[in-house]
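Case study B.
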Amino acid sequence: MSDFLEFFTRFLPDLMKGAGITLLLTAEGLSAGFVLGLLSAYARVYGSKFWRGLAVGYIELFRGTPLLVQLFIIYYGLPGLGITLSRELSAFLALGFNSGAYQAEYLRGSILAIGDGQMMAGRAIGMSRFQAIWHIILPQALRLAIPAWSNEPVSLLKSTAVVFLIAVPDLMAKAKSIAAQTYDPIGSYLAVAIVYLAIVYLLDAVLRWLERASRIPGFEMEGKKA
Amino acid sequence: MTNPILETRNLTKIYGQNIIFKNINLKVNEGETIVIIGPSGTGKSTLLRCINLLTPHDGGQVFLDGTEITAKGHDEDKVRQQIGMVFQNFLLFNHLTALDNVMIGLTKVKKLPREQAKTKAMEELNRVGLVDRADHYPGQLSGGQLQRVAIARALAMDPRVMLFDEPTSALDPELIGEVLGVMEKLAHDRMTMLVVTHEMGFAREVADRIVFMEKGSIVEEGSPDDLFYHPQHDRTREFLWKITELYGKKEKDRTSGT
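Model:
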């Protein structure tokens, strides 16, 4: 046990560097995914037939194929079409598009849960459709989405591990190189698992805080069930 | 003869094969309170929604202050700013306090500065007697309070006419009175109102004219006295008799406190 502790502290700075990249990729992917997801959810609920079809196509494509395949197509496949992207950009795009497809579904569900009545009430005081969506529907839908959506940052964080396969120096890549360097794969992967676990724990705390901070008295999932 | 604020000419609504209402001709003059009564499923609510263009109509015209608002290319959002609407199920914005519910139309639609909007919103909350609930969220208010906030929200836009779609039907009996009280006060202040309701007491006391609708048409209209005491049609008599008996009983229950 003390051996492992010593091992862990020795490589912690190195692991932290990798963790920084992992966190950065998660944040970038989550943000890009949020924008894409919101647009896709908007298109699916309110869009014309064309935009609805486009959104459905995108969501099905990225939810229906493994992230790793998406990453490889972007990094190894696109150069065949004359588009060569850096490792980091490829990782960012794959994670963003993938996460966007999932986030679209969370957001779509909560937009639908808000219902037509709120839209009608908004229109009744002279709001345009867009104003009603922006000022009335989305503020409620986003809050409603938080509990289910909270899975996505955690899930995405863990998914970022695949980027080590295109040699982005993330947390997983660090573990791999430490394992090769020390001939101690068990210690190395155990150490990296602990770091992932710690990050997820912190992330969960942030998400719980977000859920509490955005809470509206008398308006929550529990209330909806009644 | 004054020009009506609101007028429908041959307004018609059809869902597929179903005629919801047909050739409705209605005139609402400035300061008048008109109550529409009739059995459920007669198209009364749909009529109100067609009047403020929330539901597309299938024929006829609607005029507001002499301008045809059903004309092609007419700005719907502008029209709805001038027609207040109160819904059966309140439909307050659940993420906003009572004050913000009343303010949001002023700040986002009328683009008033915040302070000015707040002053106006507080005035409207005062009018419905809810200044002390300004900071409460809808989830913290009773049904009667929700509906009064909804009335204040509509009034804040300074509408030419207010539409009420069964405003007390979703309320517990003991909460109906506070909402009807607010509406009665509005009628006394000569707000122009078009009210769909089953509250016969309100219709008799407050309405300038009562319109009896059945199966998508206006059967009869006239002053409360005419309709209640000298109805021209048997159906009107039958309906009023039935509903007065039913609601009269409820009113008695209410006063005896059960």
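Chain A has a mean pLDDT of 92. The remaining cases will be described in the next quarterly update.
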